[in-house]
Write a structure and sequence with these properties.
Layout lengths: L1 H32 L4 H16 L1 H18 L1 H51 L3 H14 L4 H13 L3 H14 L4 H13 L3 H14 L4 H29 L3 H13 L6 H14 L3 H9 L5 H4 L1 H8 L5 H18 L3 H8 L2 H11 L4 H15 L2 H10 L5 H6 L7 H13 L3 H24 L6 H14 L3 H8 L2 H14 L5 H17 L5 H17 L5 H14 L4 H9 L2 H11 L2 H17 L1 H10 L4 H7 L4 H14 L14 H9 L6 H17 L3 H7 L3 H7 L7
Helix pairs in contact: 1-2, 1-4, 2-4, 3-4, 4-5, 4-6, 5-6, 6-7, 6-8, 7-8, 8-9, 9-10, 10-13, 11-12, 11-13, 12-16, 16-19, 17-20, 19-22, 22-24, 23-25, 23-26, 24-27, 26-27, 26-28, 27-29, 28-29, 28-30, 29-32, 31-32, 32-33, 32-35, 34-35, 35-37, 36-37
Protein name: TTC12 protein
Pfam family, one: TPR_2
InterPro entries: ARM-like (IPR011989), ARM-type_fold (IPR016024), TPR-like_helical_dom_sf (IPR011990), TPR_2 (IPR013105), TPR_rpt (IPR019734), TTC12 (IPR043195)
């Protein structure tokens, strides 16, 4: 019938159009797979994989549709079957193509990696043109390899082709939007192009992606800020020259006069002095830099030879001092000039030699110049980056022998440098062979050296003990311990305020070293504890507090030391100090008592006698310091074995206090443990305390805490 024929014709057309659409879709997928755009290619791969996964389901549905249509129109069914066959054929081709592409990708990745290594080798040799060629060849094999883009960007940076470097970084970020190296290099390229805002944005992205890169971020942002400031300073200086400002013109003229060859050393010394006096502000500092003032050593052989002479005559000394004056003037508060000065090879090589020259004038001005760097974070980083500081601790420590301001300047520099972790790391190199023998010598000569400077030096060594490697080396040095003990012994003969500061510093150093445990410490334990017992009579409360601190750390190393101090009446003395209060003293004191009472019966009996009804310990149990509370509870528990000790507490609130701590939520579990043990021992030694415990409904708490009690 006509109606049926029209229906069949319409369905045939619809099937045909659907077939064409599918062909178009597949053609688009193939085109996408061939795309140079990595994003388009990735999308095409994902769509292809989806179609392959759905293929079996599609076959079943098409088969059902074909059976149903057979009833209506055989011809339409043939078209549908042809469509299904053709579509399946395309999908099969697509699947085969995907597998072939995966194989080719592996091959290309292998080739790209080989080309990358060749490029890296050329880059290391400084052949940036070849490096770029190899990276480019690698990208032809694998267009979405991010490392090839950033490596090529690095090579472009070396070639000063900054726009190309930025372009490669952008391509790398298309491959991986969180690629930190790409943002870092793009920031460098923008900085070179004076795009300060864009450079900062790149570095801010790094911090957003990885907050642990904060140190890198700070360094990068500081570099941008310095470069922007440098440019502004130079623009301002140029305007002043163009306006004919006398001060600006004089810098240029003086530098031109110094540029005259074959003059006498006195001529150059005088010119340098005049130039140093002419530099008064940032503009003059900038003009000195922009007119090649830092090349004076490189360009003038007479000046360079005089400055670098090993044994300088008086004229060479004057020249060197003049140069140091000049560099102080041009570097004060000017980080760009500070950086440039340290990049001068002769200056870098001579600084430690000038410090060791033995010429006081040269040493004084060298210290003054270095202080400009050490007093701020960026300056210290410049020193650490450009200088080999392995010998600086030893060199600067020698100034303890100086009676003048050089000693103070040297110690201030050292104190500043100890804030840098890389300086501490470099100090390890010469510590055992150079620094510790010198330090021990200074300690044994405490009566003869500048004692204020020595105290500062000892404090610096104590701070360096924060580095575990340095602390271990010092704690294992017998000569160091012997020197410390000698200084303590001499204290009894010399009681000047400056010597007191040395003693105070040495006790602090000893406390830091006693964080370690080794055979050397065990060997000196009895001697150290004996000296500390003598110091408990000192009139200076700070000395007494530190002596107790040393006792609290040395006694665990030796049972013999514990016996000796207990015989010497340490318990009674510590109880006296604890009655006076003071949290630091209380902390050290109660820890010392807990060590003594742990295994020494005489110490337990002495504490019961000295602390009537445990009034001191009960007071310490109310402290807000958990360390003090835990040790006080431990001491109390140890002393309850003494007959009558538990009975003396019957009319006190000890049960309530211990119960509060045993069932409390202290951060230190030792507080609950020690309180529970003391409470258990209390009830065993004197059962009448159980009545108070019942009144306070504390039996459940005690029972739950009994797991801590091993000795009842």
């Amino acid at each position: 019938p006509p109606g049926l024929a029209m229906l069949a014709g319409g369905e045939q057309e619809e099937d045909f159009q659907r077939f064409l659409r599918r062909v178009d879709d597949i053609a688009n997928l193939v085109q996408g797979l061939n795309s140079a755009d990595s994003a388009v290619k990735a999308k095409a791969i994902a769509e292809t994989e989806k179609r392959l996964r759905d293929q079996e389901t599609s076959k079943e549905e098409d088969s059902k549709t074909t059976v149903n249509r057979t009833v209506i129109n055989t011809r339409a069914s043939d078209v549908a079957n042809a469509e299904a066959v053709n579509a399946d054929g395309f999908l099969a081709i697509l699947e085969k193509d995907a597998k072939e592409r995966a194989t080719r990708r592996k091959e290309n990745e292998h080739l790209a990696n080989a080309l990358k290594e060749k490029g890296n080798d050329a880059f290391r040799k400084g052949d940036y043109v070849i490096a770029i060629q190899r990276y480019t060849e690698g990208l032809e094999k694998l267009k979405d390899k991010q490392e090839l883009y950033t490596n090529r960007a690095q090579a472009y940076l070396k070639m000063h082709e900054y726009e190309k470097a930025i372009g490669d970084c952008e391509w790398a970020l298309k491959c991986n939007g969180k690629y930190v190296k790409a943002y870092f290099l793009m920031g460098k390229a923008h900085l070179a192009l004076k795009h300060y805002s864009e450079s900062r944005q790149c570095y801010e992205k790094i911090l957003q992606i990885d907050p642990q890169k904060e140190s890198l971020f700070k360094d990068c942002m500081n570099e941008v800020n310095l470069e922007e400031k440098r440019m502004k300073d130079e623009e301002r200086a140029m305007k002043e020259v163009q306006s004919g400002k006398l001060a600006a013109l004089s810098i240029k003229e003086l530098l031109q006069k110094l540029d005259r060859p074959d003059q006498s050393i006195l001529y150059y010394t005088g010119g340098i002095r005049l130039l140093a006096g002419a530099v008064k502000d940032c503009t003059e500092q900038t003009l000195f830099r922009t007119n090649n003032g830092f090349s004076i050593l490189k360009d003038n052989e007479i000046v360079r030879r005089g400055f670098c002479a090993e044994r300088k005559n008086s004229a060479e000394v004057d020249l060197s001092v003049s140069l140091l004056f000049l560099w102080q003037a041009v570097c004060a508060g000017n980080e760009e000039n500070q950086r440039l000065l340290l990049t001068q090879p002769d200056v870098n090589a001579q600084l430690p030699k000038l410090l060791s020259s033995g010429v006081s004038e040269i040493q004084k001005e060298t210290l003054a110049l270095i202080s400009l760097y050490s007093e701020n974070e960026n300056g210290r980083r410049l020193l650490v980056r450009h200088q080999d500081l392995t010998k600086w601790l030893q060199i600067l420590m020698t100034f303890v022998n100086s009676a003048d301001a050089r000693g103070s300047s040297a110690m201030n520099i050292l104190s500043d440098l100890t804030q840098e972790e890389r300086f501490k790391t470099q100090c390890r190199v010469m510590l055992s062979t150079g620094v510790l023998p010198l330090f021990a010598q200074l300690l044994t000569s405490a009566k003869l050296v500048n004692q204020a400077t020595l105290a500062h030096c000892i404090g610096i060594m104590g701070n360096l003990c924060a580095d575990v490697v340095i602390r271990m080396q010092m704690a294992e040095c017998k000569e160091c311990w012997q020197a410390c003990l000698k200084l303590v012994d001499e204290h009894f003969d010399v009681s000047t305020p400056k010597y007191q500061e040395c003693l105070f510093a040495v006790l602090g150093l000893m406390m830091n070293l006693l964080l370690e445990s080794n055979v050397v410490i065990q060997y000196f334990a009895v001697d150290i504890s004996g000296r500390c017992m003598s110091l408990l009579r000192d009139k200076d409360g700070r000395i007494v507090t530190r002596a107790i601190g040393v006792l609290s750390r040395i006694l665990p190393a030796s049972s013999s030391a514990v016996e000796e101090v207990v015989k010497g009446g340490v318990v009674k003395k510590i109880i006296t100090f604890l009655k006076a209060g003071g949290q630091i003293t209380s902390n050290y004191g109660i820890k010392t008592l807990s060590i003594c009472t742990r295994s020494n019966r005489q110490a337990q009996e002495d504490l019961v006698k000295s602390d009537k009804r445990f009034s001191v310990l009960l007071k310490l149990l109310d402290s807000e310091n958990e360390m003090i509370v835990g040790n006080a509870a431990f001491c109390l528990g140890q002393c309850l074995v003494v007959p009558g000790a538990a009975t003396s507490l019957l009319n006190s609130n000890v049960v309530m206090i211990l119960l509060k701590h045993a069932g409390g939520d202290a951060t230190r579990t030792s507080v609950q443990e020690n309180a529970a043990i003391a409470l258990g021992k209390l009830c065993v030694a004197e059962p009448r305390h159980i009545f108070q415990l019942r009144k306070l409904n504390g039996l459940a708490i005690l029972n739950s805490s009994m797991k801590y009690v091993h000795s009842i």
